[in-house]
From TrEMBL:
<dbReference type="InterPro" id="IPR024906">
    <property type="entry name" value="Eno_Rdtase_FAD-bd_dom"/>
</dbReference>
<feature type="domain" description="Enoyl reductase FAD binding">
    <location>
        <begin position="324"/>
        <end position="382"/>
    </location>
</feature>
<keyword id="KW-0560">Oxidoreductase</keyword>
<dbReference type="Pfam" id="PF12242">
    <property type="entry name" value="Eno-Rase_NADH_b"/>
</dbReference>
<keyword id="KW-0520">NAD</keyword>
<dbReference type="GO" id="GO:0004318">
    <property type="term" value="F:enoyl-[acyl-carrier-protein] reductase (NADH) activity"/>
</dbReference>
<keyword id="KW-0444">Lipid biosynthesis</keyword>
<feature type="domain" description="Trans-2-enoyl-CoA reductase-like NAD(P)H binding">
    <location>
        <begin position="4"/>
        <end position="78"/>
    </location>
</feature>
<dbReference type="GO" id="GO:0006633">
    <property type="term" value="P:fatty acid biosynthetic process"/>
</dbReference>
<dbReference type="InterPro" id="IPR010758">
    <property type="entry name" value="Trans-2-enoyl-CoA_reductase"/>
</dbReference>
<feature type="domain" description="Trans-2-enoyl-CoA reductase catalytic">
    <location>
        <begin position="83"/>
        <end position="318"/>
    </location>
</feature>
<dbReference type="GO" id="GO:0051287">
    <property type="term" value="F:NAD binding"/>
</dbReference>
<keyword id="KW-0276">Fatty acid metabolism</keyword>
<comment type="subunit">
    <text>Monomer.</text>
</comment>
<keyword id="KW-0443">Lipid metabolism</keyword>
<dbReference type="Pfam" id="PF07055">
    <property type="entry name" value="Eno-Rase_FAD_bd"/>
</dbReference>
<comment type="pathway">
    <text>Lipid metabolism.</text>
</comment>
Length: 396
């Protein structure tokens, strides 16, 4: 059967499992090419099916040799649906890890639920001999049920605070830039976004695992944040998502006080801009990333998500080359935000307007390919065909 790629607006509606399998092999090869390093023995990755969570799991397993547990929900295959990309990423990761003699466990579940936390606790107690000594929090979700009131659901929004913002965004379906105005968030929306995207659930995970006795005394835990340049500040850093990240940083300080006495550590890493399914819908963000990718292509300095995460853990989390800011946050994004790179980006941005935009622009080509590869398309040498019976052999 033929695989048909479908993008609606900026949302991918289809998947090529063969392409995802090839992308997984390439990412594993990136980590392995850099050799092994001392790190975790048992890593729990919350949000390990894609992007920075998947990159963290890859370097933990194939760089550190760790047992890895991943929690995150992605729709599995059904009779008329091939499944979400994240589901296949989990399947192909587990297969590759076990082939390499590593332990890998996937929980396709809602990370916010207390029942999911108990699943992890039971698994560590019953199946493993080592406690969790690395906890990565990389959850990007649209909503979260209040753990103290099941009738209340918080929904996150991507909005500015205090004023409207107008910017150009990429419409991948129509392959054109469109002007978009986003109204400011209400106080309720700001609070809800903080509940979903802040550090509340991160703290719950750490406390729950620690109280259950499955967290190593010297456990490191890390949450990923984002600062970005002036070009994205109004909608991100100064908006609802930025407010949530400030709350997460406060959570890190509280967790540091909890873990430090036994040799543990709570970290925030400010990561580079990346093409992800979640970031594709942030107004103005795709325009900036296209300019960044074009500037990085010209200078030969582009860093993939897995390479970024491998450098973060290899050099900063477990290495002696930490780059930290005045707030004590790790800054692997320093390469992107350097004066030289931002000057190059600033020269390209004026070209990225609806009137001047063309699909031949190198930044657009790089962005579109990266976005398509998140679903397994545009992977060189991978056919757009599948055999349902053959794919079903991959099911756990």
């Amino acid at each position: 059967m033929q695989l048909a790629e479908k993008i609606t607006g900026n949302v991918a509606r289809s998947v090529n499992p063969h392409g995802l399998e090839q992308m997984m092999s390439q990412q594993i090869a990136t980590v392995r090419s850099r050799g092994t390093y001392a790190g975790a023995k048992c890593a729990l990755i919350l949000g390990g099916s894609a992007s920075y969570g998947l990159g963290s799991r890859l370097t933990a397993a194939f760089g550190q040799g760790a047992t890895t547990i991943s929690v995150g929900y992605a729709r599995p295959p059904q009779a008329d649906f091939l499944g979400a990309a994240g589901w296949w990423n989990q399947v192909y990761f587990k297969r590759a890890a076990e082939k390499a003699g590593l332990v890998a466990q996937n929980f396709n579940a809602n990370a916010f639920l207390s029942s999911t936390k108990q699943l992890v606790i039971d698994y560590v107690r019953q199946e493993l001999t080592e406690p969790i000594d690395l906890l990565v929090y990389s959850i990007a979700a649209p909503k979260r049920v209040n753990p103290n009131n099941a009738d209340e659901t918080w929904r996150s929004v991507i909005k500015p605070i205090g004023h409207s913002v107008t910017d150009f965004s990429l419409n991948l379906e129509q392959e054109r830039l469109v002007e978009q105005t986003v109204a400011p968030a209400s106080a309720a929306e700001i609070a809800a976004t903080t509940h979903v995207m802040g550090g509340e659930d991160w703290e719950l995970w750490v406390h729950t695992l620690r109280d259950a006795g499955v967290l190593a005394p010297n456990c490191k835990t890390i949450l990923f944040s984002y600062e970005g340049p002036t070009a994205t500040a109004a909608i991100y850093h100064d908006g609802t998502l930025g407010r949530a990240k400030r709350a997460a940083e406060a959570s890190a300080r509280r967790l540091q006080q909890l873990l430090a006495p036994t040799g543990g550590e709570a970290l925030i890493s400010v990561n580079r801009s990346a093409v992800t399914k979640a970031s594709a819908v942030i107004p103005g963000f795709s325009r900036y990333v296209m300019a960044l990718l074009q500037a990085e292509q010209a200078s030969g300095t582009h860093e993939t998500t897995v390479a970024h995460q491998d450098r973060l853990f290899r050099e900063m989390v477990y290495g002696d080359q930490r780059q930290m800011d005045d707030e004590g946050r790790l800054r692997p994004d320093a390469l992107e935000l350097s004066t030289t790179m931002q000057a190059a980006v600033a020269q390209i941005l004026p070209e990225l307007t609806p009137a001047r935009f063309t699909t031949a622009m190198p930044g657009y080509q790089a962005y579109r390919q990266a976005f398509r590869q998140l679903s397994g398309f545009a992977v060189p040498g991978v056919p757009a065909e599948f055999d349902w019976d053959e794919l079903s052999d991959n099911y756990d």
